[in-house]
Amino acid sequence: MSDSVLQPGRPGFTFRRPVRLVSTQAGLEELCRELLAEEIIALDVETTLDWGTLCLAQVATGDYNAVIDVFELDDLTPLFLVLEDPSIGIIIHNARFEQSILGKLGCRITSVFDTLTISRRLRGYRIPGGHSLGAVCRRELAIELDKSYQTSDWSRRPLSNAQLNYAALDAEVLIDLHRNFQGEMD
Known about the structure:
Blueprint: E1 4-5, E2 19-22, H1 25-35, E3 40-47, E4 54-60, E5 65-69, H2 77-83, E6 89-92, H3 95-103, E7 112-114, H4 115-123, H5 133-141, H6 161-185
Parallel strand pairs: 2-5, 3-6, 6-7
Antiparallel strand pairs: 1-2, 3-4, 4-5
Helix pairs in contact: 1-2, 4-6, 5-6
């Protein structure tokens, strides 16, 4: 795979922000230079079904989404430097998972805004529907996420357009959740 812009893979499915597929070292380094200028970014990851191996990392800003195919890269250090930068807020849903997966690789994520924790704090721990990303997006943003690809085989290549679209959208919605929750917390 070479770095490219993804197109929606399902009829009627559209992103609000452009999506880049990053699958070269040069593409990752360019992306990370851009990310270092951001005040806040969203992060999501996809792993093998046993949660042992990182397969994809997705980041989103207010302007674009990027899906990083870690299987195609030799060195994730540029991404780790972004995620460890205390001046950049990292929006994650269920940050303990991402911190665990990336921590195994030596990355210590700092400055986390966990939408799962905030949802629980603002809505109560035992709210009907719960606090999964799908439930929080439905309740807070009136967005219905298709979670059917959540248990995909993320280690198998090539990834389908539908898998890549799913991955990108999971990061994109975190930017909107952050804005929504920030408005209530201010």
